[in-house]
Protein backbone atom coordinates (compact mmCIF):
# COMPACT_ATOMS: atom_id res chain seq x y z
CA UNK A 1 0.00 0.00 0.00
CA UNK A 2 1.44 3.31 -1.07
CA UNK A 3 0.97 6.11 1.43
CA UNK A 4 1.34 9.84 0.93
CA UNK A 5 3.49 11.11 3.78
CA UNK A 6 4.52 14.67 4.49
CA UNK A 7 7.43 15.07 6.92
CA UNK A 8 7.89 18.50 8.40
CA UNK A 9 10.82 19.45 10.62
CA UNK A 10 13.25 22.22 11.43
CA UNK A 11 16.46 20.42 10.38
CA UNK A 12 17.69 17.63 8.13
CA UNK A 13 21.08 16.23 7.18
CA UNK A 14 22.90 17.26 5.04
CA UNK A 15 21.23 20.67 4.75
CA UNK A 16 21.17 21.95 8.34
CA UNK A 17 21.99 20.18 11.58
CA UNK A 18 22.11 21.05 15.27
CA UNK A 19 21.62 17.58 16.69
CA UNK A 20 20.37 14.06 16.14
CA UNK A 21 16.98 15.32 14.92
CA UNK A 22 18.66 16.23 11.63
CA UNK A 23 20.14 12.73 11.31
CA UNK A 24 16.68 11.22 11.71
CA UNK A 25 14.93 13.56 9.28
CA UNK A 26 17.78 13.06 6.82
CA UNK A 27 17.50 9.28 6.89
CA UNK A 28 13.93 8.14 7.55
CA UNK A 29 12.38 9.51 4.31
CA UNK A 30 14.77 7.53 2.12
CA UNK A 31 13.89 4.29 3.80
CA UNK A 32 10.18 5.04 3.61
CA UNK A 33 10.57 5.71 -0.09
CA UNK A 34 12.35 2.38 -0.46
CA UNK A 35 9.24 0.78 1.06
CA UNK A 36 7.21 2.29 -1.77
CA UNK A 37 5.71 5.39 -0.17
CA UNK A 38 5.37 8.85 -1.65
CA UNK A 39 7.29 10.91 0.89
CA UNK A 40 7.91 14.64 0.81
CA UNK A 41 9.91 16.67 3.28
CA UNK A 42 9.60 20.34 4.14
CA UNK A 43 11.89 22.60 6.15
CA UNK A 44 13.08 26.22 6.20
CA UNK A 45 15.74 27.45 3.83
CA UNK A 46 18.24 28.81 6.32
CA UNK A 47 21.12 30.84 4.97
CA UNK A 48 23.42 27.86 5.22
CA UNK A 49 21.30 25.80 2.82
CA UNK A 50 23.18 26.63 -0.33
CA UNK A 51 20.86 26.83 -3.33
CA UNK A 52 23.59 26.15 -5.88
CA UNK A 53 25.36 23.37 -4.05
CA UNK A 54 22.15 21.41 -3.66
CA UNK A 55 20.80 22.43 -7.07
CA UNK A 56 17.60 23.78 -5.64
CA UNK A 57 15.10 25.11 -8.10
CA UNK A 58 12.44 27.61 -7.35
CA UNK A 59 8.85 26.56 -7.84
CA UNK A 60 6.61 29.03 -9.65
CA UNK A 61 4.29 31.09 -7.49
CA UNK A 62 4.34 32.00 -3.85
CA UNK A 63 2.88 30.31 -0.81
CA UNK A 64 0.30 32.38 1.05
CA UNK A 65 0.44 31.65 4.76
CA UNK A 66 -2.37 32.94 7.00
CA UNK A 67 -0.63 34.13 10.18
CA UNK A 68 -3.65 35.05 12.28
CA UNK A 69 -3.51 38.58 13.61
CA UNK A 70 -0.42 39.36 11.51
CA UNK A 71 -2.41 38.68 8.35
CA UNK A 72 -1.19 36.83 5.30
CA UNK A 73 2.53 36.28 4.89
CA UNK A 74 4.25 34.99 1.80
CA UNK A 75 7.18 32.78 0.98
CA UNK A 76 8.91 31.24 -1.98
CA UNK A 77 9.46 27.51 -2.24
CA UNK A 78 12.59 25.79 -3.49
CA UNK A 79 12.69 22.13 -4.36
CA UNK A 80 15.62 19.79 -4.02
CA UNK A 81 16.18 16.06 -3.66
CA UNK A 82 17.29 14.22 -0.53
CA UNK A 83 20.73 12.88 -1.47
CA UNK A 84 20.80 9.18 -2.26
CA UNK A 85 17.08 9.03 -3.05
CA UNK A 86 14.29 10.53 -5.14
CA UNK A 87 12.55 12.09 -2.16
CA UNK A 88 11.64 15.71 -2.89
CA UNK A 89 12.49 18.19 -0.18
CA UNK A 90 10.89 21.63 -0.17
CA UNK A 91 12.55 24.65 1.38
CA UNK A 92 10.59 27.63 2.59
CA UNK A 93 12.28 30.82 1.55
CA UNK A 94 11.56 33.63 3.99
CA UNK A 95 14.41 36.03 4.39
CA UNK A 96 13.07 37.67 7.55
CA UNK A 97 12.54 34.41 9.44
CA UNK A 98 15.23 32.10 8.14
CA UNK A 99 17.93 34.29 6.61
CA UNK A 100 20.04 34.00 9.76
CA UNK A 101 23.32 32.31 10.52
CA UNK A 102 22.09 29.94 13.18
CA UNK A 103 18.88 27.95 13.39
CA UNK A 104 17.41 28.79 16.76
CA UNK A 105 19.46 31.23 18.78
CA UNK A 106 22.24 33.73 19.11
CA UNK A 107 24.62 33.89 22.10
CA UNK A 108 22.73 31.07 23.82
CA UNK A 109 19.51 33.10 23.66
CA UNK A 110 16.57 31.83 21.58
CA UNK A 111 15.45 34.28 18.89
CA UNK A 112 12.63 36.42 20.21
CA UNK A 113 10.42 35.66 17.23
CA UNK A 114 10.83 31.86 17.39
CA UNK A 115 7.07 31.56 17.97
CA UNK A 116 6.31 33.25 14.67
CA UNK A 117 9.16 31.50 12.84
CA UNK A 118 7.94 28.03 13.73
CA UNK A 119 4.21 28.68 13.63
CA UNK A 120 5.00 29.90 10.13
CA UNK A 121 6.87 26.67 9.35
CA UNK A 122 3.92 24.62 10.61
CA UNK A 123 1.32 26.55 8.66
CA UNK A 124 3.40 26.80 5.51
CA UNK A 125 3.98 23.02 5.55
CA UNK A 126 0.22 22.46 5.40
CA UNK A 127 -0.31 25.18 2.80
CA UNK A 128 2.36 23.48 0.72
CA UNK A 129 0.21 20.32 0.49
CA UNK A 130 -2.48 22.44 -1.12
CA UNK A 131 -0.05 24.15 -3.46
CA UNK A 132 1.39 20.80 -4.57
CA UNK A 133 -2.03 19.16 -4.77
CA UNK A 134 -0.57 16.56 -2.45
CA UNK A 135 -3.20 15.14 -0.09
CA UNK A 136 -1.20 13.44 2.66
CA UNK A 137 -2.49 10.32 4.37
CA UNK A 138 -0.40 11.36 7.34
CA UNK A 139 1.67 14.36 8.33
CA UNK A 140 4.69 13.53 10.45
CA UNK A 141 5.84 16.39 12.69
CA UNK A 142 8.96 16.50 14.89
CA UNK A 143 9.53 18.21 18.23
CA UNK A 144 8.12 21.58 19.30
CA UNK A 145 9.17 23.32 16.08
CA UNK A 146 6.37 21.65 14.12
CA UNK A 147 4.18 20.56 17.02
CA UNK A 148 1.61 23.17 15.93
CA UNK A 149 0.91 21.04 12.86
CA UNK A 150 -1.42 18.52 14.56
CA UNK A 151 -3.11 21.42 16.37
CA UNK A 152 -3.76 23.24 13.10
CA UNK A 153 -4.93 20.08 11.34
CA UNK A 154 -7.61 19.57 13.98
CA UNK A 155 -8.73 23.19 13.93
CA UNK A 156 -7.95 25.63 11.12
CA UNK A 157 -7.60 22.90 8.45
CA UNK A 158 -10.17 20.43 9.71
CA UNK A 159 -12.48 20.96 6.73
CA UNK A 160 -9.74 21.52 4.20
CA UNK A 161 -10.16 19.49 1.06
CA UNK A 162 -6.57 18.21 1.08
CA UNK A 163 -6.09 17.78 4.80
CA UNK A 164 -9.37 16.84 6.45
CA UNK A 165 -8.74 13.12 6.01
CA UNK A 166 -5.08 13.21 7.05
CA UNK A 167 -3.81 11.69 10.30
CA UNK A 168 -0.88 13.15 12.20
CA UNK A 169 2.09 11.76 14.07
CA UNK A 170 4.23 13.79 16.45
CA UNK A 171 7.66 12.40 17.22
CA UNK A 172 9.17 13.71 20.44
CA UNK A 173 12.96 13.79 20.29
CA UNK A 174 13.31 15.91 23.38
CA UNK A 175 10.82 16.85 26.07
CA UNK A 176 12.90 19.62 27.55
CA UNK A 177 12.38 22.03 24.69
CA UNK A 178 8.69 22.76 24.40
CA UNK A 179 8.25 25.95 22.40
CA UNK A 180 6.85 28.00 25.24
CA UNK A 181 5.85 31.56 24.33
CA UNK A 182 3.94 34.64 25.39
CA UNK A 183 0.21 33.94 25.23
CA UNK A 184 -0.20 36.39 22.33
CA UNK A 185 1.04 33.58 20.08
CA UNK A 186 -2.57 32.32 20.25
CA UNK A 187 -3.53 35.21 17.98
CA UNK A 188 -0.91 34.17 15.46
CA UNK A 189 -2.14 30.58 15.52
CA UNK A 190 -5.54 32.13 14.87
CA UNK A 191 -7.51 29.13 16.11
CA UNK A 192 -9.44 30.90 18.87
CA UNK A 193 -8.71 31.49 22.53
CA UNK A 194 -10.95 28.66 23.64
CA UNK A 195 -7.97 26.40 22.86
CA UNK A 196 -5.88 28.26 25.42
CA UNK A 197 -6.77 25.94 28.28
CA UNK A 198 -4.69 23.90 30.69
CA UNK A 199 -5.85 20.79 28.85
CA UNK A 200 -4.62 21.94 25.45
CA UNK A 201 -2.16 24.75 24.79
CA UNK A 202 -1.76 26.65 28.04
CA UNK A 203 1.08 25.96 30.46
CA UNK A 204 2.14 28.45 33.15
CA UNK A 205 0.23 31.20 31.36
CA UNK A 206 2.18 30.63 28.19
CA UNK A 207 1.40 29.02 24.88
CA UNK A 208 3.13 25.63 24.88
CA UNK A 209 3.33 24.29 21.35
CA UNK A 210 4.62 20.84 22.32
CA UNK A 211 1.75 20.42 24.73
CA UNK A 212 -0.73 21.34 22.00
CA UNK A 213 0.88 18.82 19.67
CA UNK A 214 0.74 16.09 22.28
CA UNK A 215 -2.93 16.82 22.89
CA UNK A 216 -3.90 16.92 19.20
CA UNK A 217 -1.72 14.43 17.31
CA UNK A 218 -3.45 11.27 16.16
CA UNK A 219 -0.37 9.28 17.24
CA UNK A 220 2.66 10.05 19.38
CA UNK A 221 6.05 8.46 19.58
CA UNK A 222 9.49 9.02 21.02
CA UNK A 223 12.84 7.73 19.81
CA UNK A 224 13.14 4.81 22.23
CA UNK A 225 10.74 2.67 24.20
CA UNK A 226 12.52 3.59 27.40
CA UNK A 227 12.02 7.30 26.83
CA UNK A 228 8.34 6.71 26.00
CA UNK A 229 7.95 5.27 29.49
CA UNK A 230 10.12 7.91 31.15
CA UNK A 231 8.26 10.97 29.82
CA UNK A 232 5.18 9.79 31.67
CA UNK A 233 6.97 10.46 34.96
CA UNK A 234 7.65 13.74 36.74
CA UNK A 235 11.40 13.10 36.58
CA UNK A 236 11.51 13.20 32.78
CA UNK A 237 8.27 14.86 31.76
CA UNK A 238 9.32 18.49 32.26
CA UNK A 239 5.81 19.27 33.49
CA UNK A 240 4.05 17.63 30.55
CA UNK A 241 3.90 14.13 32.06
CA UNK A 242 0.19 14.56 32.81
CA UNK A 243 -0.85 15.35 29.25
CA UNK A 244 1.43 12.57 27.97
CA UNK A 245 -0.14 10.07 30.35
CA UNK A 246 -3.57 11.06 29.09
CA UNK A 247 -2.48 10.10 25.59
CA UNK A 248 -0.42 7.09 26.61
CA UNK A 249 -2.59 4.77 24.60
CA UNK A 250 -1.34 6.42 21.38
CA UNK A 251 2.30 6.58 22.52
CA UNK A 252 5.11 4.22 21.58
CA UNK A 253 8.89 4.24 21.10
CA UNK A 254 10.96 3.54 17.99
CA UNK A 255 14.72 3.50 18.32
CA UNK A 256 16.51 5.52 15.64
CA UNK A 257 18.63 3.78 13.05
CA UNK A 258 22.22 4.47 12.11
CA UNK A 259 23.40 5.52 8.67
CA UNK A 260 25.93 2.73 8.17
CA UNK A 261 27.14 4.23 4.90
CA UNK A 262 28.42 7.13 6.95
CA UNK A 263 29.47 5.23 10.09
CA UNK A 264 31.38 2.13 9.02
CA UNK A 265 34.99 1.49 10.06
CA UNK A 266 35.52 -0.66 6.97
CA UNK A 267 35.18 2.27 4.60
CA UNK A 268 35.15 5.43 6.72
CA UNK A 269 36.94 8.07 4.63
CA UNK A 270 37.95 10.15 7.64
CA UNK A 271 40.21 7.46 9.12
CA UNK A 272 43.96 6.96 8.65
CA UNK A 273 43.30 3.20 8.48
CA UNK A 274 40.19 1.09 8.11
CA UNK A 275 39.35 -2.00 10.13
CA UNK A 276 36.68 -4.63 10.67
CA UNK A 277 35.64 -7.15 13.33
CA UNK A 278 37.81 -9.75 11.58
CA UNK A 279 40.85 -7.52 11.19
CA UNK A 280 41.19 -5.00 14.00
CA UNK A 281 44.73 -3.92 13.08
CA UNK A 282 43.67 -0.51 11.76
CA UNK A 283 42.07 0.46 15.09
CA UNK A 284 45.51 0.74 16.69
CA UNK A 285 46.62 3.04 13.87
CA UNK A 286 43.55 5.19 14.45
CA UNK A 287 44.31 5.37 18.18
CA UNK A 288 47.90 6.49 17.64
CA UNK A 289 46.94 9.06 15.02
CA UNK A 290 44.22 10.42 17.30
CA UNK A 291 46.62 10.73 20.25
CA UNK A 292 49.17 12.47 18.04
CA UNK A 293 46.66 14.93 16.57
CA UNK A 294 45.41 15.83 20.06
CA UNK A 295 48.87 16.20 21.56
CA UNK A 296 48.34 13.28 23.96
CA UNK A 297 51.25 10.89 24.65
CA UNK A 298 51.22 8.18 21.97
CA UNK A 299 50.70 5.14 24.15
CA UNK A 300 49.12 1.89 23.18
CA UNK A 301 49.08 0.70 26.78
CA UNK A 302 46.63 3.24 28.13
CA UNK A 303 42.83 3.19 27.68
CA UNK A 304 41.57 6.12 25.62
CA UNK A 305 38.06 7.35 26.38
CA UNK A 306 36.16 9.62 23.98
CA UNK A 307 33.18 11.90 24.18
CA UNK A 308 31.42 13.87 21.40
CA UNK A 309 28.51 15.91 22.61
CA UNK A 310 26.61 19.11 22.82
CA UNK A 311 27.98 20.58 26.04
CA UNK A 312 24.68 21.03 27.85
CA UNK A 313 23.28 19.68 31.08
CA UNK A 314 21.22 17.02 29.31
CA UNK A 315 24.46 15.28 28.39
CA UNK A 316 25.65 15.03 32.00
CA UNK A 317 28.60 17.36 31.54
CA UNK A 318 28.11 18.81 35.03
CA UNK A 319 28.50 15.31 36.45
CA UNK A 320 31.55 14.77 34.26
CA UNK A 321 33.03 18.06 35.50
CA UNK A 322 32.61 16.90 39.09
CA UNK A 323 34.16 13.50 38.43
CA UNK A 324 36.99 14.75 36.24
CA UNK A 325 39.67 15.50 38.85
CA UNK A 326 39.35 11.99 40.30
CA UNK A 327 39.13 10.38 36.87
CA UNK A 328 42.39 12.01 35.85
CA UNK A 329 44.14 10.35 38.75
CA UNK A 330 43.64 7.06 36.91
CA UNK A 331 46.07 6.06 34.21
CA UNK A 332 43.71 6.91 31.35
CA UNK A 333 43.40 9.39 28.51
CA UNK A 334 40.21 11.31 27.81
CA UNK A 335 39.21 13.37 24.81
CA UNK A 336 36.19 15.65 24.71
CA UNK A 337 34.79 17.23 21.53
CA UNK A 338 31.82 19.53 21.82
CA UNK A 339 30.31 22.97 22.02
CA UNK A 340 27.58 24.48 24.14
CA UNK A 341 27.40 26.30 27.44
CA UNK A 342 30.16 28.89 27.95
CA UNK A 343 31.11 27.66 31.47
CA UNK A 344 31.89 24.25 29.99
CA UNK A 345 34.21 25.76 27.37
CA UNK A 346 36.18 27.50 30.11
CA UNK A 347 36.16 24.65 32.57
CA UNK A 348 37.14 21.80 30.27
CA UNK A 349 39.58 24.03 28.36
CA UNK A 350 41.25 24.85 31.68
CA UNK A 351 41.56 21.22 32.74
CA UNK A 352 43.06 20.35 29.34
CA UNK A 353 45.68 23.06 29.80
CA UNK A 354 46.51 21.65 33.27
CA UNK A 355 46.63 17.99 32.30
CA UNK A 356 47.81 17.76 28.66
CA UNK A 357 49.13 14.26 29.39
CA UNK A 358 45.66 12.88 30.16
CA UNK A 359 42.95 15.19 28.90
CA UNK A 360 42.36 16.80 25.49
CA UNK A 361 39.46 19.11 24.75
CA UNK A 362 38.33 20.52 21.41
CA UNK A 363 35.60 23.12 21.49
CA UNK A 364 33.62 23.32 18.28
CA UNK A 365 31.83 21.18 15.76
CA UNK A 366 34.09 18.82 13.80
CA UNK A 367 32.60 15.85 11.96
CA UNK A 368 35.96 14.46 10.85
CA UNK A 369 37.29 14.48 14.42
CA UNK A 370 34.03 12.89 15.61
CA UNK A 371 34.69 9.97 13.24
CA UNK A 372 38.31 9.69 14.36
CA UNK A 373 37.27 9.67 18.02
CA UNK A 374 34.73 6.90 17.37
CA UNK A 375 37.41 4.83 15.65
CA UNK A 376 40.49 5.57 17.76
CA UNK A 377 39.10 5.29 21.29
CA UNK A 378 38.70 2.22 23.48
CA UNK A 379 35.63 3.55 25.26
CA UNK A 380 32.97 6.16 24.59
CA UNK A 381 31.40 8.03 27.51
CA UNK A 382 27.77 9.25 27.66
CA UNK A 383 26.77 10.20 31.21
CA UNK A 384 23.45 11.77 30.09
CA UNK A 385 20.89 13.03 32.56
CA UNK A 386 18.32 12.02 29.97
CA UNK A 387 18.76 10.67 26.46
CA UNK A 388 15.72 10.11 24.26
CA UNK A 389 17.76 7.96 21.88
CA UNK A 390 21.38 9.00 21.48
CA UNK A 391 23.30 8.16 18.34
CA UNK A 392 26.93 8.12 19.39
CA UNK A 393 26.66 4.99 21.52
CA UNK A 394 25.35 3.18 18.43
CA UNK A 395 28.12 4.56 16.23
CA UNK A 396 30.65 3.55 18.89
CA UNK A 397 29.54 -0.05 18.95
CA UNK A 398 30.05 -0.37 15.19
CA UNK A 399 33.66 0.79 15.72
CA UNK A 400 34.31 -1.61 18.60
CA UNK A 401 34.51 1.37 20.96
CA UNK A 402 32.70 0.28 24.08
CA UNK A 403 30.05 2.67 25.38
CA UNK A 404 30.03 3.64 29.05
CA UNK A 405 26.56 5.07 29.57
CA UNK A 406 24.09 6.18 32.13
CA UNK A 407 21.19 3.72 31.78
CA UNK A 408 18.47 6.10 30.64
CA UNK A 409 16.16 6.28 27.60
CA UNK A 410 17.78 5.10 24.40
CA UNK A 411 21.11 4.47 26.10
CA UNK A 412 19.53 1.89 28.34
CA UNK A 413 17.64 0.33 25.42
CA UNK A 414 20.59 0.06 23.06
CA UNK A 415 23.48 -0.94 25.34
CA UNK A 416 23.69 -4.30 27.09
CA UNK A 417 25.69 -4.31 30.29
CA UNK A 418 28.92 -6.34 30.52
CA UNK A 419 28.62 -9.64 32.30
CA UNK A 420 32.13 -10.77 33.13
CA UNK A 421 31.23 -14.37 33.94
CA UNK A 422 29.33 -14.99 30.72
CA UNK A 423 31.27 -12.60 28.51
CA UNK A 424 28.01 -11.09 27.31
CA UNK A 425 27.12 -7.46 26.77
CA UNK A 426 28.52 -4.63 24.69
CA UNK A 427 29.15 -1.81 27.13
CA UNK A 428 29.13 -0.57 30.71
CA UNK A 429 26.17 1.03 32.44
CA UNK A 430 25.44 3.04 35.54
CA UNK A 431 22.14 4.19 36.94
CA UNK A 432 22.62 7.04 39.41
CA UNK A 433 23.18 10.40 37.70
CA UNK A 434 26.07 11.35 39.92
CA UNK A 435 29.85 11.69 39.87
CA UNK A 436 30.36 8.67 42.16
CA UNK A 437 28.51 6.28 39.87
CA UNK A 438 30.26 7.70 36.82
CA UNK A 439 33.67 7.33 38.44
CA UNK A 440 32.99 3.78 39.61
CA UNK A 441 31.79 2.65 36.20
CA UNK A 442 34.68 4.20 34.29
CA UNK A 443 36.88 2.53 36.92
CA UNK A 444 35.20 -0.82 36.24
CA UNK A 445 35.65 -0.45 32.47
CA UNK A 446 39.28 0.61 32.80
CA UNK A 447 40.03 -2.17 35.27
CA UNK A 448 38.54 -4.66 32.80
CA UNK A 449 40.69 -3.18 30.03
CA UNK A 450 43.87 -3.60 32.06
CA UNK A 451 43.14 -6.98 33.60
CA UNK A 452 40.77 -8.84 31.29
CA UNK A 453 41.81 -8.16 27.69
CA UNK A 454 39.93 -11.24 26.51
CA UNK A 455 36.76 -9.93 28.10
CA UNK A 456 37.25 -6.64 26.27
CA UNK A 457 37.89 -8.44 22.97
CA UNK A 458 34.66 -10.43 23.42
CA UNK A 459 32.71 -7.26 24.19
CA UNK A 460 34.12 -5.62 21.09
CA UNK A 461 33.01 -8.46 18.90
CA UNK A 462 29.53 -8.34 20.42
CA UNK A 463 29.33 -4.59 19.89
CA UNK A 464 30.58 -4.70 16.31
CA UNK A 465 28.07 -7.36 15.35
CA UNK A 466 25.13 -5.31 16.61
CA UNK A 467 23.05 -3.34 14.09
CA UNK A 468 20.50 -0.58 14.48
CA UNK A 469 19.16 -0.32 10.96
CA UNK A 470 16.92 2.27 9.39
CA UNK A 471 15.21 -0.51 7.44
CA UNK A 472 13.97 -1.83 10.75
CA UNK A 473 12.96 1.58 12.10
CA UNK A 474 11.20 2.56 8.85
CA UNK A 475 9.12 -0.61 8.97
CA UNK A 476 8.00 0.32 12.48
CA UNK A 477 7.15 3.86 11.38
CA UNK A 478 5.09 2.44 8.54
CA UNK A 479 3.09 0.37 11.02
CA UNK A 480 2.58 3.44 13.16
CA UNK A 481 1.41 5.48 10.16
CA UNK A 482 -1.15 2.80 9.29
CA UNK A 483 -2.37 2.70 12.86
CA UNK A 484 -2.75 6.50 12.81
CA UNK A 485 -4.65 6.44 9.53
CA UNK A 486 -6.90 3.71 10.84
CA UNK A 487 -7.68 5.73 13.96
CA UNK A 488 -8.35 8.84 11.95
CA UNK A 489 -10.60 7.28 9.34
CA UNK A 490 -11.89 4.15 11.01
CA UNK A 491 -11.21 0.71 9.58
CA UNK A 492 -14.00 0.70 7.01
CA UNK A 493 -13.28 4.17 5.67
CA UNK A 494 -9.60 3.31 5.48
CA UNK A 495 -10.39 0.36 3.23
CA UNK A 496 -12.60 2.54 1.04
CA UNK A 497 -10.04 5.31 0.83
CA UNK A 498 -7.35 2.90 -0.22
CA UNK A 499 -9.63 1.25 -2.79
CA UNK A 500 -10.58 4.63 -4.21
CA UNK A 501 -7.00 5.49 -5.02
CA UNK A 502 -7.34 6.45 -8.61
CA UNK A 503 -4.66 5.76 -11.17
CA UNK A 504 -4.52 9.55 -11.60
CA UNK A 505 -3.29 9.94 -8.05
CA UNK A 506 -0.65 7.28 -8.55
CA UNK A 507 0.44 9.02 -11.73
CA UNK A 508 0.57 12.38 -10.00
CA UNK A 509 2.84 10.97 -7.35
CA UNK A 510 5.13 9.43 -9.96
CA UNK A 511 5.45 12.83 -11.54
CA UNK A 512 6.23 14.52 -8.26
CA UNK A 513 9.68 15.54 -9.27
CA UNK A 514 8.31 17.52 -12.18
CA UNK A 515 7.46 20.11 -9.57
CA UNK A 516 4.50 22.29 -8.93
CA UNK A 517 2.26 23.16 -11.85
CA UNK A 518 0.17 26.24 -11.23
CA UNK A 519 -3.50 25.53 -11.59
CA UNK A 520 -5.48 26.99 -14.45
P1 LIG B 1 21.55 15.25 20.43
O1 LIG B 1 20.66 15.30 19.24
O2 LIG B 1 20.81 15.30 21.72
O3 LIG B 1 22.65 16.23 20.38
P2 LIG B 1 22.38 12.63 19.42
O4 LIG B 1 23.28 11.64 20.03
O5 LIG B 1 21.08 12.15 18.93
O6 LIG B 1 22.24 13.82 20.47
O7 LIG B 1 23.05 13.27 18.14
C1 LIG B 1 24.16 14.08 18.17
C2 LIG B 1 24.75 14.10 16.79
O8 LIG B 1 25.54 15.26 16.64
C3 LIG B 1 25.65 12.95 16.51
O9 LIG B 1 25.61 12.66 15.14
C4 LIG B 1 27.02 13.50 16.94
O10 LIG B 1 28.09 12.84 16.33
C5 LIG B 1 26.91 14.90 16.49
N1 LIG B 1 27.72 15.87 17.24
C6 LIG B 1 27.40 16.45 18.41
N2 LIG B 1 28.35 17.33 18.78
C7 LIG B 1 29.30 17.29 17.82
C8 LIG B 1 30.55 17.99 17.62
N3 LIG B 1 30.99 18.88 18.49
N4 LIG B 1 31.25 17.71 16.51
C9 LIG B 1 30.80 16.80 15.63
N5 LIG B 1 29.65 16.12 15.76
C10 LIG B 1 28.89 16.36 16.83
C1 LIG C 1 17.33 14.52 20.44
C2 LIG C 1 17.80 13.67 21.60
C3 LIG C 1 18.69 12.54 21.20
C4 LIG C 1 18.16 11.81 19.98
C5 LIG C 1 17.91 12.81 18.87
C6 LIG C 1 17.37 12.17 17.59
O1 LIG C 1 18.20 15.51 20.09
O2 LIG C 1 18.46 14.48 22.55
O3 LIG C 1 18.80 11.62 22.27
O4 LIG C 1 19.06 10.83 19.55
O5 LIG C 1 16.99 13.76 19.28
O6 LIG C 1 16.18 11.50 17.80
Automatic annotation (TrEMBL):
Gene name of the encoded protein: glgA
The keyword Transferase is annotated on this UniProt entry: yes
Presence of keyword Transferase: yes
Catalytic activity: [(1->4)-alpha-D-glucosyl](n) + ADP-alpha-D-glucose = [(1->4)-alpha-D-glucosyl](n+1) + ADP + H(+)
Residue positions binding ADP-alpha-D-glucose: 17
Enzyme class: transferase
Pathway(s) annotated for this protein in UniProt: Glycan biosynthesis; glycogen biosynthesis
Residue span(s) of domain Glycosyl transferase family: 297-441
Composition bias, Basic and acidic residues: 502-514
Keywords tagged on the record: Glycogen biosynthesis, Glycosyltransferase, Transferase
Domain of life: Bacteria
Residue span(s) of domain Starch synthase catalytic: 4-245
EC number: 2.4.1.21
Region (Disordered): 496-520
Protein name: Glycogen synthase
Amino acid sequence: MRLNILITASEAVPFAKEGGLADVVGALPKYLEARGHDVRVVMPRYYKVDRERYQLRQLPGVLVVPMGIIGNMYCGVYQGIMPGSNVPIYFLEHEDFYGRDSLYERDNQGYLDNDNRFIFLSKASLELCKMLQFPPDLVHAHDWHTAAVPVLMNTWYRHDHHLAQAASLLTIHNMQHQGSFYEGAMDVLGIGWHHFTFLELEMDNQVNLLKGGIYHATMLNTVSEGYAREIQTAEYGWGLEGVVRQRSETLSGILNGVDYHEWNPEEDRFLPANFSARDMGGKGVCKRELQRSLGLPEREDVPLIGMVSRLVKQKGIDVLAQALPRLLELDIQLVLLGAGEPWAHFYFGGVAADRPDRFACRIGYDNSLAHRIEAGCDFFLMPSAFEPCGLNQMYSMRYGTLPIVRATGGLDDSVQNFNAAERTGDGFKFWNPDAGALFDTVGWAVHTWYHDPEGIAALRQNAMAKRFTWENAAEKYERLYLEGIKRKLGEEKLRQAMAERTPAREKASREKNEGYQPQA
